[in-house]
Write a structure and sequence with these properties.
Largest sheet: 4 strands, mixed
Number of strands: 6
Shape: globular
Order of helices and strands: HEHEEEEHE
Number of helices: 3
Radius of gyration: 16 Å
Helix content: 25-40%
Oligomer: single chain
Distance between the termini: 64 Å
Structural class: alpha/beta
Length: 110
């Protein structure tokens, strides 16, 4: 019985702990470019479910209760995408409740 309960509880914990779905304002084939990298960072424990998004040094505000977050970017706008773990992002951005950070550097458009 204990074994069944532990399997069931771990399935619920892992099944409910997926990160947000971050999608780009882009064509269908490029729409999920950021999502693939975010999921990889999440699987490697670099970030948690609701990371801080920083675009060109400015934190991007989004509703952390939503599952899907639309980023106002296209794949062609993105130069680099980096990740900070919880401790580093808390020190740099002084956010108490943050699950790591996704740092996006884009081409500056006039």
């Amino acid at each position: 019985m204990k074994r069944i309960l532990s399997i069931l509880s771990s399935t619920i914990v892992f099944g409910c702990s997926n990160p947000h779905t971050f999608i780009l304002n882009d064509t269908k084939e490029n729409k999920y470019f950021v999502l693939e990298l975010v999921n990889q960072a999440f699987d490697e424990n670099q970030i948690d479910k609701s990371p801080l998004i920083v675009i060109n040094g400015i934190p991007f505000e989004y509703n952390k209760k939503q599952d899907t977050i639309l980023l106002p970017l296209k794949k062609s706008d993105i130069i680099s995408l980096d990740f900070l773990n919880k401790n580093s992002s808390r020190i740099i951005y002084n956010e108490k409740e943050n699950d790591g950070a996704i740092i996006i550097t884009t081409r500056i458009q006039n």
